[in-house]
Amino acid sequence: MVKITVAGLSIWYDEQTAIKNLSLQVSEKEILGIIGPSNSGKTSFLRTLNRLNELTSNCKTEGEIQLDGKSIFKEIDLLSLRKLVGIVFALPLPLPLSIYDNIAYGPRLRGEKNKSKLDGIVEKSLKASYLFDEVKDRLNTSAFNLSGGQQQRLCISRTLANEPEIILYDEPCSGLDPISTAKVEEAMRDLKKNYTQILVTNNTKQAARVADRTAFFLMGELVEIGDTTKMFTSPSDKRTDDYIAGRFG
Amino acid sequence: MKNLFEFIVEKAIFLSGAASIIFVVLIFIFLLKEGLALFGEVNFFAFLFGQNWYPISDPPQFGILPLIMGSVFVTFGAIVIAVPLGLAAAIYISEVAPHSIRGFLKSGIELLAAIPSIVLGFIGIIFLAPLLKNIFHLGSGLTALAGSIMLAFMALPTIVSIIEDAIVSVPRSYKEGALALGATHWQAIYRVTIPAAASGILAAVMLGIGRVVGETMAVLMITGNAAIMPTSLLQPVRTLTATVAAEMGEAVSGSSHYYSLFAIGIVLFIISFIINIFADIFLHRSKAMKRRKK
Questions:
Q1: What pLDDT shows up at residue B61?
Q2: How far apart are CA A83 and CA A99, in angstroms?
Q3: If DSSP codes are grouped into helix, strand and coil, which group holds residue A224?
Q4: Total number of domains constituting chain B
Q5: CA atoms within 13 A on the CB side of B11
Q6: Which of A186, B216, B218, B243 is a plausible cystine mate for B117, CB 3.0–4.6 Å?
């Protein structure tokens, strides 16, 4: 089933084009990997999916994105969109609050005050990102005391606590060591049961490890999108082959 | 030859650097020398907690509690007015205002800092005091409240620019993270940006207090100058600073009255020293956060 439909999307920063006439579809409960060199528009695309790009004042967007057949620009209210489409940033950035409050932040914004319900949400979200056992005894300490890998999984938990349908990852492991990376990837694979996920990564091997399908962006254009195994063994475009093989980028 | 030059330059720079500390120490010593002489004749506690300031009666009484309370009332009133205003202004400037208005507002607020306090005193006497008199049906509008309002304006530029600095140095990603979780702009400011800037905001409050406690001219002109224990903001009061300014000229050099004014100076010095230390601690914390952002 198609979850997200992108049609004719273009993004500019002032005069500079970040994305040119992009069209693609994301299926429900798949992990779509997006690879490509820097400045290929991967992050701009991702941040448009929950309209965070609009915070950049010189950014202009054209085209249509639909979530379950509804336009995210016209038919879905901005705040509900951001609840439905969660994002995990490149650098793990907890809010300056305790571990517990970081996760309870989203539900509280939506007016959840019931302590036992919040406890339940926090525990469930932490378990889903495999963090619960590591932090269960110190939920009320500052989130800054966690290691980088733990902070990133905390950010995933925080996103999950919002009960999104889609999770976006913007190079989530770029600052993490291999062991933490493996844990984050494990969490992603596990989350596939319930969520549609889009993973922007500079690490082509990471896309190969976790993505069901992979898209290759270059200079703001979608070069190729398809089954990950096929893309990494016999890509149909020579540029994809060159990039994956490490001949440029 | 070259080494000698290096030596001279190095020592000259060192001396300039040390000068400010030396001056502070010298000033304190000078104050102590002149002020402590008082306590040969007057009990220390009678000075600090005495309720009557009659320096030229016979026998004289040197209780500065009414003066301390005068300073406290005026300062408290000024901070209650200036902090919410300053916080709101800083949030507007740093988070809400469009770029074009931002620069305009900032220079406007800095201009407020450039107004001589004596001018604010004029405005207080000519405009504010009669207004308060009519509003509250007082005998005279020259009250602690008048002083508070004028001093609030004086403290505002300090408060706004330090809070604004603190807000701007909150990592953008905090706010973005909150927005990404579905917070509205205001919720992100209120729940994330302001708590993250809290130490900077406290520092701004402390420095604002320091500015108000030390101010002399405007309070001398508009607080009514009655050295009595205040019970409300609508009474005339007299602050520590105004007392020194008003009486220094007529105090006989070497008399107890003269020494008592220096003792007031010591009290003021200690108050602003403590305030500065707190402000410094809070500023330090907010700088530590700025570093974490990188």
A1: 87
A2: 20
A3: strand
A4: 1
A5: 6
A6: B218
Alpha-carbon span A121 to A125, nearest angstrom: 6
Task: Kindly state the helix (H) or strand (E) to which residue A175 belongs, with its residue range.
Answer: none
Q: Tens of pLDDT along B209-247?
A: 998 998 888 888 898 888 888 888 888 999 999 999 989
Q: Give the B-side interface with A, CB within 8 Å.
A: 171, 173-174, 176-184, 187, 191-192, 195-196, 289, 292
The position carrying tokens 């198609």 is A2
The verdict on residue B95 lying in a domain is yes
Query: Which residue does chain B place closest to A78, by CA atoms?
Result: B182
Query: Number of folded domains in chain A?
Result: 1
Q: Which of A52, A96, A158 sits opposite B179 (nearest CB)?
A: A52
The ipTM estimated for the assembled molecules is 0.79
pLDDT-derived band at B291, boundaries 50, 70, 90: low
Q: How confident is the model at residue B254 (pLDDT cuts 50, 70, 90)?
A: confident
For A193-211, letters b (16+ CB in 10 Å) and e give eebbbbbbbbebebbbbbb
Contacts of A86 in chain B (CB under 8 A): 180-181
CB contact under 8 A, A96 and B195: yes
In the prediction, which pLDDT does B293 show?
A: 47
Domain of residue A134: give its range: 2-244
Identify whether the C-beta of residue A56 lies closer than 8 Å to the C-beta of residue A13.
yes
Q: Are B177 and A95 in contact (CB under 8 A)?
A: yes
Q: What is the CATH number of the domain that holds A150?
A: 3.40.50.300
> What would you report as the CA-atom Rg of chain B, rounded to the nearest whole angstrom?
23
Whether residue A156 is contained in a domain is answered as: yes
Distance CA(A187)–CA(A169), nearest Å, equals 12
Number of other CB atoms surrounding residue A159 within 10 Å:
28
pLDDT tens sequence across B28-65: 999 999 888 888 888 888 888 888 898 888 888 899 99
B180: pLDDT strictly greater than 80? yes
Closest by Cα among A12, A3, A20 to A85? A3
> Which residues lie closer than 8 Å to A194 by C-beta, 6 or more apart?
A29
Domain holding B245, by residue range, is 44-258+282-293
